[in-house]
Design brief:
By secondary structure, this protein is of the alpha+beta class. 35% of the residues lie in helices and 28% in strands.
């Protein structure tokens, strides 16, 4: 009888009685995503690095996704989970086009939908390890910038940043907005490039290769990867660390 019980428990363990498994920590991750609202649109930016722990393993991944003509999202955190979110959004876009009634989801709709998805997964104790930045416009054409993290906390703001960028780039963006409240998209793109360059100097999980997305009333596009020129001669200036 004991032998039969052991054999049956072994068969159950082999054929489906395994414990439920959840993601306990991110594996391949992306760092900061930045976004800013300008007078004539929204600018969003992220680098192209996927870090495997502390190893700069994947240097050519895109962490920006064009959902439709009104919305671009950027993903911080586990890249596999972000790919899952992109798959869900692609299916949503296909479903909208199949209906064929001309109605699409604007940026606030997508932001609220992502909030529900992330909060739902968090409530199941199996969160998607991402913070998502949603950049776009609403149905009236007004620029929109939203933030939602892995437990469903969401808000809208004139400028947002994730990861280390919330400490380094966010103060730079806030100061730029104070000095130039009517910033244009072109000025916003230059600001994003400057912020990402500073992050490359300061954040060991970042890369000097990045993409910039722009959403206006006339376009919704993501640039090809851009490489920032860097100068490490400043590394000789600090002293006292020898």
């Amino acid at each position: 009888r004991l032998m039969a019980r052991c054999l049956s428990s072994g068969i159950n363990a082999e054929y489906g009685a395994q414990p439920k498994k959840h993601t306990l920590q991110p594996i391949v991750t992306g760092t900061s995503v930045l976004g800013i609202v300008c007078s004539d649109g929204v600018v969003i930016a992220a680098d192209t690095l996927g870090s495997y722990g502390s190893l700069a393993r994947f240097r050519d991944i895109s962490r920006l996704m064009k959902v439709n003509d009104s919305t671009i999202i950027g993903g911080f955190g586990d890249y596999a989970d972000f790919q899952f979110i992109m798959k869900l959004l692609n299916q949503q876009t296909i479903d909208d086009s199949v209906v064929g009634d001309g109605v699409y989801r604007d940026a606030p709709s997508i932001h609220n939908w992502l909030r529900c998805v992330l909060y739902n997964r968090r409530s199941k104790m199996n969160p998607l390890w991402n913070t998502i930045v949603v950049a776009g416009r609403d149905f009236s054409g007004k620029p929109y910038l939203g933030y939602v993290d892995k437990i469903g906390v969401s808000f809208t703001e004139r400028s947002v940043a994730t990861g280390f960028g919330s400490y380094i780039a966010q103060p730079m963006m806030r100061r730029a907005i104070e000095e130039n409240p009517n910033m244009t998209v072109e000025e916003g793109k230059r600001l994003m490039a400057r912020c990402l360059k500073v992050l490359f100097y300061r954040d060991c999980r970042s890369l000097n290769r990045f993409q910039i997305g722009v959403v206006t009333n006339t376009e919704s596009s993501i640039s090809d990867p851009i490489s920032a020129d860097t100068d490490w001669t400043i590394g000789a200036n600090p002293s006292g660390y020898e």
